[in-house]
Amino acid sequence: MKVAVMLALVAVCAAPSTLAASNSRGPGPPSVVPFCRSGFTVTLPTTRIVLVRGQTFGDLYQYGVPHPIRHTVAAGWRLDHRDVRGAVQLANELLGIAETVTETGGRQILYFPYLFDFPSRLGDMHPRWYSGMAQARIAGLFARLYEATGDHRWRTRAIETYRSLTRVDPVRRVWHWEGTHRWIDTFSWATPDPVLNGHLYAIVGLHDLWRITGVGETVLRQAIDTLGTQGSRFMAAGGKHEYDLARSGIAGRYYSEIVWEQMQKIGVMAPCLAAAAKTFYDPA
């Protein structure tokens, strides 16, 4: 087992694109102090971050087509239980719905659209819509398949999927800048509205990608930095937290438990995040 690498968090090094820049709907309480401050030390562990809560996403074929995040989580569960063949089957089903964007020079980028309607109190989604959370988790899944099989095809697919989180696409928008803060979007709404648990899930996927391939460290650090300096904006009165930055409603117990666990696990990268998890939810 490799020793975790201690690295100082650097300032966001990529200049925000004006096309991708956007303010979130609802700034949150201005008096709230961020959990962490710029310059805090981050550990990028080489051991895998394993989540337990929130790993069941219902019937994989409920919508008659692959569900990107459900397929990804189920494939990861199969890898956890040494069912590599089953994980490969689900990953191939994901590739069956993939959109390939080819840029100048032949560089390919993979997107995994949602091909069904998704009614939501936050705003209905209609095909085709996209999710940065899914893109990051799929990149991490493909990296894990490369780790498990040694098949370089999966490493290539992991990097092609990750590229979606580095380029601006006005149609397939899966992330955005807010000032110097990079948010990984859960839903491709026209107006960005960060969702806390989706951003956290994306960090876990990006960590798998970096841990196995060495690719994506800058974006991973930027996502952690956004959480460390902006995450407190999800806080609400009475030790509760908002589901999204538009403050459309208090997160229920299910999401509170997920956020608590995610921040505990990601706390190995930045201990202040593990401590902040109690702000949102304390199982005790």
How would you sum up this structure, described in words?
There is one protein chain. 39% of the residues lie in helices and 8% in strands. With 284 residues, the chain is mainly alpha-helical. It has a single domain (35-280), classed as Glycosyltransferase. The strands form 3 sheets. The protein has a two-stranded antiparallel ribbon. A two-stranded antiparallel sheet has the order 3-4. The two termini are 33 Å apart. The model is unreliable at 1-31 (pLDDT under 50).
Task: Annotate the secondary structure layout.
Blueprint: E1 5-8, E2 41-44, H1 68-80, H2 84-95, E3 99-102, E4 108-111, H3 132-149, H4 152-162, E5 175-178, E6 181-184, H5 196-213, H6 217-230, H7 253-266, H8 271-280
Antiparallel strand pairs: 1-2, 3-4, 5-6
Give a brief rundown of this model.
The protein is mainly alpha-helical. The protein has 8 helices and 6 strands; from the N terminus they run ββααββααββαααα. A hairpin with a 5-residue loop joins strand 3 and strand 4 (108-111).
From the structure above, extract its key features.
mainly alpha; Glycosyltransferase; two-stranded antiparallel ribbon
Helix content: 25-40%
> Spatial order of the strands in the main sheet?
1-2
Q: Round the mean pLDDT to the nearest integer and report it.
A: 86
By DSSP, the count of extended strands is 6
Main sheet?
Answer: 2 strands, antiparallel
Q: Order of helices and strands, N to C? A: EEHHEEHHEEHHHH
Tally of individual helices: 8
Name of the top-level CATH class: Mainly Alpha
Q: What does the overall shape look like?
A: globular
Distance between the termini: 33 Å
Number of domains: 1
Annotated CATH architecture: Alpha/alpha barrel
Rg over CA atoms? 18 Å
CATH topology grouping:
Glycosyltransferase
Low-confidence stretches: 1-31
Pairing-aware structural class of the strands and helices?
Answer: mainly alpha
Portion in beta strands: 5-15%
